[in-house]
Design a protein that fits this description.
Number of helices: 7
Radius of gyration: 17 Å
Distance between the termini: 6 Å
Order of helices and strands: EHEHEEEEEHEHEHHEHEE
Largest sheet: 6 strands, mixed
CATH class: Alpha Beta
CATH superfamily: Endonuclease/exonuclease/phosphatase
Number of strands: 12
Number of domains: 1
Length: 255
């Protein structure tokens, strides 16, 4: 039975509520992780906050950050255990443990700090995320982690016109931390399924028609434990969805 995991940095859920509802109604993803929701649950419209047919967890306080996680009840009939790991700060990660006939599975939505104002905090968050993924692996749990990681893995993940050796998001030390995360038994599903695509981007600066010209960065990912990644059948960037500066990214697994 396939499972589709979708992630989207909405850049403000209140501004994208109708777009979010329309997309979910169209595609019915089994798991949806949102980032940069910029709202506390009491400020989110009822049809969005309590999304019909989904277990929902909103983790936001109204600042510029915030994440959420939504699991389709038909795919996950038993109520999941939602939580945010101890290293969370600024409401940047929410996870859910699911136990079913598909085995033990942890799903997570994450929003890594940009690093422009506090680069050290970004590196500390990436290191903590790596440790957490390693702990889950050691415990025998499979993980699917989706979100805005704010790091372009390689130069291939940045349009040539946007490549800058000193730009945050492209620095060697950030890419080293990303490699450390993958070393915890995780696979970058989008790149694994489309290894030669030099036009695979998920974020575009909101000026000079960069999105329409596809001059962007790939900083939004679905990462999955190797046994799950080996069963991945598709990954898509939904550049037609919404008006955020990020596009949703999906990955489908035969689980």
């Amino acid at each position: 039975m396939p499972i589709t995991f979708a992630t989207w940095n909405v850049n403000g859920i209140r501004a994208r509520s109708e777009q979010f509802l329309s997309w979910v109604e169209r595609d019915h993803p089994d798991v949806v992780g949102l980032q940069e929701i910029k709202a506390s649950p009491d400020k989110i419209a009822e049809p969005v906050c309590n999304l019909g047919g989904y277990w929902c967890y909103w983790h936001g306080t109204g600042g510029y950050s915030g994440v959420s996680l939504h699991l389709r009840r038909e795919a996950f009939p038993e109520e999941p255990r939602f939580y945010h790991p101890a290293f969370d700060h600024e409401t940047r990660i929410v996870a859910a443990d699911v136990t079913s006939d598909r085995g033990d599975l942890t799903l997570a939505s994450v929003y890594v700090p940009n690093g422009g104002k506090d680069f050290a905090a970004k590196m500390e968050f990436l290191e903590a995320l790596e440790r957490w993924a390693g702990e889950l692996r050691a415990a025998g749990r499979r993980l699917i982690l989706g979100g805005d990681l704010n790091v372009a893995r390689t130069d291939q993940d940045v349009h040539p016109k946007e490549r800058k050796k000193n730009a945050i998001g492209q620095l060697p030390e950030e890419r080293e931390r990303f490699a450390g995360l993958l070393a915890q038994g995780l696979v970058d599903v989008g790149r694994a399924l489309d290894p030669e695509n030099a036009d695979l981007f998920t974020w575009w600066a909101p000026w000079r028609n960069l999105r329409q010209r596809n001059i962007g960065w790939r900083i939004d990912y679905v990462l999955a434990s190797t046994p799950l990644a080996e069963k991945a059948t598709a990954s898509r960037v939904l550049a037609d969805v919404g008006t955020s500066d990020h596009a949703p990214v999906t990955a489908t697994f035969e689980v």
